[in-house]
Amino acid sequence: MISERDSETTFDEDSQPNDEVMPYSDDETEDELDSQQPVVKQGQNQINRDAEEGRETLKKDCSWQVKANDPHFYEQPQFKRTVFLCFKKSKYAGNAIKTYKYNPITFLPLNLLEQFKRAANFYFLVLLILQSIPQITTLAWYTTLVPLLLVLGITAVKDLVDDIARHRMDNEVNNRTCEVIRDGRFKNTKWKDIKVGDVIRLKKNTFVPADILLLSSSEPTSLCYVETAELDGETNLKFKMALEVTHRYLQEESAMADFNGLIECEEPNNRLDKFAGTLSWRNMSYPLDADKILLRGCKIRNTEFCHGVVIFAGADTKIMKNSGKTRFKRTKIDSLMNYMVYTIFVVLILLSAGLAIGHTYWEQQIGNSSWYLYDAEDFSPPYRGFLNFWGYIIVLNTMVPISLYVSVEVIRLGQSYFINWDLQMYYPEKDTAAKARTTTLNEQLGQIHYIFSDKTGTLTQNIMTFKKCCINGQRYGDCRDGAGQLQSHPEQVDFSWNTYADGKFSFYDRYLIEQIKSGKEPEIHKFFFLLAICHTVMVDTSDGQLNYQAASPDEGALVTAARNFGYVFLSRTQNTITISEMGTERTYDVLAILDFNSDRKRMSVIVRESDGSIRLYCKGADTVIYERLHPKNLKREATQEALDIFANETLRTLCLCYRDISHDEFEAWNKKFVEASVAKTNRDEALDKVYEEIEKNLILLGATAIEDKLQDGVPETISRLSKADIKIWVLTGDKKETAENIGFSCELLTDETKICYGED
User: Fold this and answer.
1) What is the reported pLDDT for 62?
2) CA distance 75 to 16
3) Looking at the predicted structure, is the pLDDT value of residue 171 above 70?
4) By three-state DSSP, how is residue 225 classified?
5) Exposed, middle or buried: residue 217 (CB in 10 Å: 0-12, 13-18, 19+)?
6) Phi/psi of residue 257, each to 5°?
7) Is 455 labeled as ligand-binding?
8) Which terminus of the chain has a smaller tally of CB atoms within 10 A, N or C?
9) DSSP string across 242-301
10) What does DSSP assign to residue 368?
């Protein structure tokens, strides 16, 4: 079975792999297909035919092939690449990673090469060579060799200590274990021994060892919750969902061992949010997208176990493709010292040249006529001047400060310890101290001129709280009693009437509660019903309590608010959603989900109501919602006024709206939606075009206002950085008024600041 959601991917026409594209054979290598066929939905045959028609086009772009549980598949000649002359190796990387610079063989040559990039070191190497020439040497060669070896040795030891730490980190990662199918059974295997095509089992709170296709999990409909902090710094849980066919048939260990699906997808690349490919299994093709892929570096959360097949391993994984090669870094101080040494070296050459010219003149005038200066060598005065030029270079070598490099290295080492010991950079709540991970870049911290920062989650706590709303032109959220009269002393609303209420939720407008209980305002019902149904939040139950897992904290706050006001999101499958409406439990068919992205700035769901009617619910930024409203929206101006008030209070706002859709209109639109969902090229553009056709003539319900508080100490920190003449830029997607007020509250903007607007 394949649902409409399964058929959505994000394959772009211009998506080209980073690595060299290898030629492949078109010969099919699949094993005999099982006689058992999965039950197929009506319309699946059409989707499958569309997938088959685009198969040849897909093969040209998706040239990476993975066969589950078949190690011999990768030994075919077309999967080999030439590494040197006639020597070939598999193009599929092993899962062992390395982030270190050196190994026992390359340490000495690479480290010396790096050190001799320093002008002073290279100068003393040349000096040592000159001192080994008897005709020009004026000092013993060991007078240069000993300090040079001392400088090189100290730096080499420091670099070796840093690299040993990287080796230890790599060994710790490579020797982690997980369960892999071996000889038909799950067996504990080290990460470094995992190969492409292996079927693995991951357990709760463990890291994902490679980029894998999710096959099934312990959750209903094979959901899998992951934390992606290692990839993008986000601590919010995100969820992945397996194909319905693999969820149904791949739960038992024996089924995992017999799984022989063929995955054709794009070559390894560094795009974390993009993936396109197909799974061919049992004479059927299933589109794959990024929502079905678990990336290396993710951590399994709130899921007891999950199964997957390895698609990219080791250096081919997306996180490693983003890391790039470990490169040598040079600070501004290093560049400055090199410049100083070059300048001193030019002065030294000019001085030695002047002395050599003077010596030549002296030889011509006096040296040749003085018998007591004869050294038994019949050299001409110019040649003697040439030899003495190099002699003066050697004698005046003390002008070049080789000890300066050693001094700087010692200072950097001391600075790194001071950073580690700094109590002002210690965070007692989590017992976390500052840590200098390298001793070569410390002084760069004092060279910063610009800071570019995100707002949400960086300057703010990323803990969203529902504060106010506007429904049908009426604002709610102020401190009012049940009759709608303002109160001077805020009293928290009692939610004891709601068995699903979240005890942490605070609200002070009793008038809204009375309006909800009375049921006289149908717009209020639609408003909170929309919050409960138009989202991608997942729910799990523990100890009888509902726990929401949201990819976005905004969505979590809105669904939690609806829950407290009596519209409780209870559960969902791939095609249905269950909601408790003021104590009455109902299940709705979800006909389509029109996803949110940064370009659309909105999301919609199309559901079939209990009476059989079809309705679209939409929420998004006011700028895009107002463009798509029906011309006869009566509460447009009142809602806009409320949005401006909320923005001035630094609250994050969203507009809510809906429209009724006839059955004929939906059937015609859904046909286009399915076709766009299986498009092989420009799929995103095709889906956006289809979305636009249905998201029009919307009826405005109202707006929500969410608070995201600043983190402790943000204004003081920005003020101190500004006094250090550091320029700070903050990126935010808020409305202009909201952004401006937050700028003042965090002291990024002051009364003396001149504000320039984009339209100016």
Assistant:
1) 63
2) 25
3) yes
4) strand
5) buried
6) -65, -30
7) yes
8) C
9) --HHHHHH--SHHHHHH---EEEEPPP-S-TT--EEEEEETTEEEEEEGGGEEPTT-EEE
10) G
* Residue 643: closest CA among 578, 593, 725, 704: 704
User: Looking at residue 50, what is its pLDDT?
Assistant: 47
Torsions phi, psi for 399 (to 5 deg): -65, -30
* Long-range contacts of residues 429-435, Cβ cutoff 8 Å, at least 24 apart: none
Q: What CA–CA distance (Å, rounded) separates 504 from 513?
A: 17
> Which residues partner with 571 through β-bridges?
578
User: Which tokens is 413 given?
Assistant: 């080492």
| Alpha-carbon gap, residue 642 to 421, rounded angstroms | 50
Cα–Cα distance for residue pair 316/19, rounded to 1 Å: 10
Token pair recorded at residue 282? 């049992």
Judged by DSSP in three states, 612 sits in: coil
- For residue 723, the surrounding DSSP H or E stretch is helix 714-723
Distance of CA 751 to the CA centre of its chain: 36
Distance CA 626, CA 640 (A): 9
Q: b/e string for 633-659 if b means 16 or more Cβ within 10 A? A: bebeebbbebbebbbebbbbbbbbbbb
> Contact at 8 Å (CB) between 108 and 148?
no
Asked if 478 and 451 count as a contact pair (C-beta separation under 8 A), the reply is no
CB distance 92 to 313 below 8 Å: yes
244 belongs to an annotated ligand binding site: no
To the question of whether residue 360 is assigned a binding role by annotation, the answer is no
Any idea which residues carry the catalytic annotation? 454
Query: CA-based Rg of the chain, rounded to a whole angstrom?
Result: 35
In the block, tokens 């919010």 appear at: 236
pLDDT given for residue 455 in this prediction:
81
Is 162 annotated among the ligand-binding residues? no
Q: Please give the structure tokens belonging to residue 67.
A: 């066969």
Segment 285-309 shows an average pLDDT of: 88
Count how many residues are written for the chain. Answer: 760
**Burial class of residue 502, CB neighbours in 10 A (0-12, 13-18, 19+):** middle
Model pLDDT, residue 614:
94
- Secondary structure in 3-state letters for 497-566: CCCCCCCCCCCCEHHHHHHHHHCCCHHHHHHHHHHHHCCCCEEEEECCEEEEECCCHHHHHHHHHHHHCC
Q: Given a cut of 50, is residue 21 above it in pLDDT?
A: no
- Do 390 and 130 meet the contact criterion of CB atoms below 8 Å apart? yes
Are 245 and 1 within 8 A, CB to CB?
yes
Backbone dihedral angles phi then psi of residue 143, each to the nearest 5 degrees? -65, -25
- Secondary structure string (H, E, C) spanning 110-156: HHHHHHCCCHHHHHHHHHHHHHCCCCCCCCCCHHHHHHHHHHHHHHH
The reported pLDDT for the residue numbered 518 is 86
According to the model, what pLDDT value does residue 61 have?
56
- 680 marked ligand binding residue: no
**What is the percent of the chain where pLDDT is above 70?**
88
Burial readout 369-393 (b: 16 or more C-beta within 10 A, e: otherwise): eeeeeeeeeeeebeebbbbbbbbbb
Nearest to 60, CA basis, from 91, 26, 102, 97 = 26
Tell whether residue 379 is among the known ligand binding residues: no
Amino acid at site 400: V
Instruction: Indicate whether 338 pLDDT > 70.
Output: yes
760 known member of a binding site? no
Expressed in percent and rounded to 5, the helix, strand and coil fractions of the chain are 40, 25, 35
> What is the C-alpha to C-alpha distance for residues 550 and 553, in angstroms, rounded to an integer?
6
Structural contact between residues 383 and 364, judged by C-beta atoms closer than 8 angstroms: no
d(CA 3, CA 575): 8
